[in-house]
Each structure stands twice: as C-alpha cells, then as structure tokens.
Amino acid sequence: MRKNILSIIGIILIGVSIFIAKKLIDNKNQPKPVIPKVVKTVIVDTVQNTTVPIVIPANGNLTAKQRVELYSEVQGIFKTGKKLFKAGTKYNRGETLISLDAAEYYASVQSAKSNLYNSIATIMPDLRLDFPDVFQKWQNYLNSFDLNKTTPKLPEISNEKENYFITGRGIVSAYYNVKNLEQRLAKYRITAPFSGILTEALVTEGTLVRNGQKLGEFINPETYEMEVAISKSFADVLKEGENVSLNNLEKTKTYQGTVSRVNGSIDATTQTITVFIEVAHSDLKEGMYLEANLNAQKVDNAIQIDRNLLLDSQEIYVVNDSVLQVLPAKPIHFSDTKVILKDIPNGTVILNKPVPGAYAGMKVQTLTQKKDSIK
C-alpha cells in the first residue's frame, strides 16, 4: 500500500515538471514586443548672416552732472532769507542760497573805502600844481566814487613820474586792500551758480556758521551721469557720442543716453576702463540705479543665438534631412544669455530651442517657430 502511494506521488511530480518545462520553453521562443520609436519635434530656424552689434551690459548709480558742495569761507550768523534752507528747495541761478550776518565786517570795509577816498582827496592839490595834465582824470575818479557801491578801478597811470607820486602816497596799496576786503565781504552771501535744487542742508537759520564748515549740497536735476566700468578690450572701440539704452531694475522704463566721456587710463587692479554716460529725463533722480547697454562693436557676417545652444565642444546642432548633426562654430562674444557666432553658412537649419537628450544622428521632426530667419 505504501509503495503504491509513493509511486503515484512520483508520477504527479514528473507530470508537473514536464508541464513547467514546456511553459518555460514556450515563453522563451515568444517574440519580444516591439517598442514604437518616438521621433521628437524640434523648433528650428534658418541662418541668415548679418551685422550683429556687440552690446555690453553695465550698471551704476546716477549722479548730477552739475553739483556743488557748499562750504563757508567766513564766520557769521545764518540770516533768514526768502526761502527756507531745506532739502528739496528749488533756487534759480543767482538767487541767494545762504546769507550770513556781515554787519561788523561791512563796517570795516566801509572804513577802508573811506580811507582810500581821503587819501586820493589829499593829493589832489599837489596833482593840480605838479601834474595838471592828469588832474582831471583823478578828479573824475573821485566824482564817481560811491561808498555804497563797489570800488571802481583806479585810473590808468600815464607816466613814470605819476606812478612814483601815486604809489608813494600809498594810493595803490590802499586800493588793493579795499578790493581784498570787498572780495571777502562777498563770501558772506552764497548764490546759486545755476538753477537747481538743494539736496542736503546741514545748517538752519539762526545758527553760527564757522569758517570751513560744510553747509549742504546743490545740484542741477536736469542732467545726470552714470559711471560704469567695462573691459579694457573695448577701450579702442567705445567713442564719445555713442547712443546708450538704459532701463530701471524693474525693466518698466527705458531712457536714452550718450557716452559723454571715456577715461584715458585703465584701472590696474580690475583691468577695466571707466565710461561716463549722460542722460536727461524728468523721471530720473540722483542715486537711482540703472542698467545700460553699450554698443561697443559690430561683427559682420555673424549670428546671435542663446548660449545654451552652444555645446562645450564649440559646436551647435544642425538639422540635415530630419537628422541632428553637429557643426563647428566660432564664438566671437559672450553675454549673459547670448553668444555671437561666425562661420555658420547661410541657409543652415539650426535648433532654436535646446533638445533634452539630443545626440548626433538623432531623428527629429522640425517645426519653425518664426517666419524670420535667425540673425
């Protein structure tokens, strides 16, 4: 009985083994499923070589082209004027910015002018007797002398004898002493050298202003300059008068400026050259940060593409008979996002957008994004 059971189990195991073996053989001979090959669609453009300008990006802060730092050369009490000396106050050319109390000094100037007048009046009798030919011009000078006005220039001395006589009486030295005092008296009043606006006020009315003290800053808000540093390689191509496009950080406004000055020396540390861009617009303020695009040079027979289309091997992908191929390129200039290339034949079909996983020999389907050829 036991032998019969074992025989039956053995027959069953042999049958199961045969069945499994047949299944494995059938699966091995079954053909593998064919995966359909996907052809990627790529965006392309046709090359048309043209003249491409090299645009250099730069940035900087605006400063007023006309600006004056106000300092006092005399000492006195700041007098109240028609306008308050406050930041933001506008003044016309010639209008008084600051006026200091000069009553005491004015009295000393008048005293010196009076002494000069008396000195000339004293010598008039001698001139009438010894120099009758020059008496009249000195008499006319005295008649035009006004203590409340600027001291007039002394008459021209005609000959050597007159010179000795006038100089010996101390007339010339007294005259220049008066003119020196008048020059200093004028410094008690500071006027606007041009129409502009006060941007900084460091003193207030009624305070004591000391000699050499800074009083504030005054600018012309109509014209500004921006200082930028560019590579020394463009030192020979940047010219004064070149047009420059500027924009604010938000890229919402654009302004037009010109290159007003180019520094004649190169910074030894950074190997850059300083360029000054002049710009005028009612929206601009001193200290505003702007970005500039300088047209430094023009490259003939070239194209401009995105930097990510240029391979590390200095090649680009082209499409020939729906197959990707690589073509050597000659980079001329790199910017943040663009590169200028030469030696790309006209009519060449190149990629307009990068293709992930692209390789030479890859089958593609083309799609032109733009009607215009790439330039």
UniProtKB/TrEMBL annotation:
Signal peptide: none annotated. Transmembrane segments: none annotated. Residues 67-215 form the Multidrug resistance protein MdtA-like barrel-sandwich hybrid domain. It holds the Pfam family BSH_RND. This is HlyD family efflux transporter periplasmic adaptor subunit.
